[in-house]
Amino acid sequence: MINTTNDPSTPPTQRSIGELVQSIRDELLGVVHHEIDIAKKEITGIAIKAGIIAACAAVLLFLLLSAWVMLLFAAATGLQALGLPYWASFLIVAGVFVLISAIAGLVAFLVFKKIKAPETTIETAQSAVDAVQGKRRSNAVSYDDTFEELYGKQVSSRTE
């Protein structure tokens, strides 16, 4: 006789091996789908930050290339004219490009520093592996609580 609920006061019922295997399969699929949902949420946040970094890097590279061109024009004009009007204006424009690219680089660096590994996904996946292997962790993670705590949505890992 097998108790089909987690409540010890519930009387045991008979279930076939096929029903037990199907139940285990359904539970495992529920856990896997829940892990995928958590990973999607965390990876989306990382992808947005990576997009910001890529955009800032593109701005930085474009402006640095533009500044380099301006510096070349300034040097050529300065050697030719040895006067203030042309090369001074080119240097001022190049300086503005360098300043803007430095700001874009700083923004990219600050966003990059804030990127973290998907900690909850790693922790819950490790808990699932430990549960399958029969290990108990002292700081066990409840999948529903963790997801709700992270994303403010109550989601059940069981399909109904």
UniProtKB/TrEMBL annotation:
The chain crosses the membrane at residues 50-74, 86-112. InterPro entries: Phage_holin_3_6 (IPR009937). Keywords: Membrane, Transmembrane, Transmembrane helix. Pfam families: Phage_holin_3_6. It comes from the Bacteria. This is Phage holin family protein. It comes from Brachybacterium tyrofermentans.
